[in-house]
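> forwarded from #structure-qc
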């Protein structure tokens, strides 16, 4: 029996109390808050499960087994851990005394990325015209940041955008814990390692340096969290364009500020104005996504970064924005992502690269609209 199969069986035993949730295709996340309290997310809503683990020791054994599978440690000296299950599901573990209610395990279930942007259109996450625009932006190698809160669908959107990359490109994926699954045949996956007894610590920054020596056509970073943001930004402005990554932020401008702040967390002393100029030069598009209170997920804005103004403030222009239209009788949020009438600065590049045939009936997205055809100002987003 192979190592993966062995841990598949042992973890099936240790996670037996939540097996029904793990096997339910409609459950996206399982949250174990100590051995007696379990919640799960289904259709975007969090509910409490009538399930429990036999005792705290049983749950601790489950956490230890997960750690062993990924060659990591969790315990008094290592209070938390990011890991994955043999099926690819993402796991976060935090243990006492940092966790007062006992061992907490959060499992983001693995979903095969068989969907693409068309699937997100079908789910009303974005519109067909926004999908066409994003596909062309990826083909034009625009550096794109996907911004949103926890559970908003950033990784799903990143997977969908990556499906637009041509098969002939060499793509390097860098993650803390492997989660992305690209369809292109020439894809390399690099995963950070926390280190420990007998194992070398390998950070995202280490892997980023490695990736630049591996002749990448694209670099995809699952999520930017720390000082590796500076490496990513500098690679973007030095010729490695077409990068994709995600960041935790609530607006496109906040996403840029977040990247700026993370860049200054590196071991290189960087003045604020220099960090801002580099971020403004590097990122070209920010795709903002949010999870609404009814459980739905929508792209709320696609904005282009146009540098900074005379006061050194970021300049963003909304190309698409979500227009809310209230709620249905069932409580579902109504509205859609609409074109603002603004055209991207890279419109000419579409034609220079011979991609105009890809535009089809969406040619208007790259030509200025008449003022009368512009949508009204976006109202406050529903919550």
């Amino acid at each position: 029996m192979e190592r993966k199969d062995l841990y598949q069986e042992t973890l099936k035993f240790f996670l037996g109390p939540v097996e029904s949730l793990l096997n339910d295709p409609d459950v996206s996340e399982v949250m174990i808050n100590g051995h007696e309290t379990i919640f799960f997310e289904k259709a975007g809503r969090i509910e409490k499960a009538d399930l429990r683990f036999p005792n705290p020791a049983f749950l601790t054994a489950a956490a230890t087994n997960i750690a062993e599978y990924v060659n990591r440690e969790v315990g008094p000296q290592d209070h938390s851990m990011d890991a994955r299950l043999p099926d690819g599901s993402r796991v976060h573990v935090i243990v006492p005394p940092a966790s007062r209610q006992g061992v907490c395990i959060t499992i983001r279930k693995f979903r095969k990325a068989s969907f693409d942007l068309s699937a997100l259109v079908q789910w009303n996450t974005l519109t067909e015209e926004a999908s066409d625009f994003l596909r062309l932006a990826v083909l034009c190698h625009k550096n794109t940041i996907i911004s949103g809160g926890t559970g908003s669908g950033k990784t799903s959107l990143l997977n969908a955008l990556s499906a637009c990359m041509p098969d002939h490109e060499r793509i390097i994926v860098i993650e803390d814990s492997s989660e992305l699954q690209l369809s292109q045949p020439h894809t390399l996956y690099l995963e950070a390692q926390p280190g420990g007894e007998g194992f070398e610590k390998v950070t995202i920054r280490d892997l980023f340096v490695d990736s630049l020596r591996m002749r990448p056509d694209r670099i995809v970073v699952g999520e930017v969290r720390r000082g590796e943001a500076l490496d990513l930004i500098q690679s973007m402005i030095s010729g490695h364009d077409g990068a994709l990554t995600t960041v935790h932020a609530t607006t496109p401008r906040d996403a840029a500020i977040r990247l700026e702040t993370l860049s200054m967390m590196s071991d290189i002393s960087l003045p604020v104005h220099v960090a801002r100029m580099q971020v403004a030069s590097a990122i070209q598009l920010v795709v903002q996504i949010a999870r609404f209170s009814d459980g739905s997920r929508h792209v709320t804005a696609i904005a282009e970064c146009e540098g900074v103004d005379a006061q050194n403030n970021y300049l963003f222009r909304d190309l698409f924005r979500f227009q809310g239209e209230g709620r249905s009788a069932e409580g579902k949020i109504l509205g859609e992502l609409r074109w603002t009438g603004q055209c991207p600065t890279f419109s000419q590049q579409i034609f220079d690269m011979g991609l105009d045939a890809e535009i089809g009936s969406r040619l208007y997205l790259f030509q200025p609209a008449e003022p009368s055809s512009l949508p009204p100002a976006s109202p406050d987003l529903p919550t």
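QC bot note: DSSP finds twelve helices and 15 strands in the chain. Residues 69 and 378 are 48 Å apart (CA to CA).
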